[in-house]
Write the structure tokens for this entry.
Amino acid sequence: MNPISILLVVLVAFLAGMEGILDEFQFHQPLVACTLIGLVTGHPAEGIMLGGSLQMIALGWANVGAAVAPDAALASVASSIIMVLGLGSGTANVQTAISTSIALAVPLSVAGLFLTMLCRTIAIPMVHFMDAAAERSDFRGVELWQILAICLQGVRIAIPAALLCFIPSEMVTNMLNAMPAWLSGGMAVGGGMVAAVGYAMVINMMATPEVWPFFALGFALAALNQLTLIALGVIGVSVALIYLGLKDLAKQGGGAGGGSGDPLGDILNNY
């Protein structure tokens, strides 16, 4: 990579690390982080492909109470850098580079948990410094410690990203080209299975009697080759509007004497 690309990659990594805590502009999401790194390194299409695959894995990742989800920021940034390094010489197979990066994303996300635990441990004394500044009515001091703690989360991703950028691209390319067909094929299959597991986690959280018919209808329509993405989108919006119209009609008493306000749910409950 040239110095400008390295600087931009580190900037994206820094923003992704902070967004893992702020969760405001979504820079830590795989689709955003991988696309940005692919864009600044000259591989936008490959970055979108990698980010889309990783996003399917991360759909079911969420912090619940004290249980912290795997670190999507480090997984996205590090795997996309590895992919870019593998494609740097132009001799590596694109699909192999993407599949290998997907396979590496999961252990990288677990390694990111250790880094975020380290940063949060370091941030504990900062809370006491903020309390002391608040007792002195030093609001600027409170803000500075807050900004420093957030920047610490960005540094935990920026430093590994900078170190990865200095790995010779020829070495990564040679490793990808040396992979036997059974290993690269296995990584492709494994990456697809992990993505399916992530989507299944989302379905498990969202599954209710009211939404199952929409899932079934969507899968059935997606199997039709003649329907484009625009057509599927039009069908989805139309079905949603019909459902909302029926729901409002039931609330207004336009149906046959009441109900729960959810006509589709009432029909399913009758069965």
Summary: The chain has a mean pLDDT of 81. The longest helix spans residues 94-135. The CA atoms of residues 208 and 265 lie 9 Å apart. DSSP finds eleven helices and no strands in the chain.
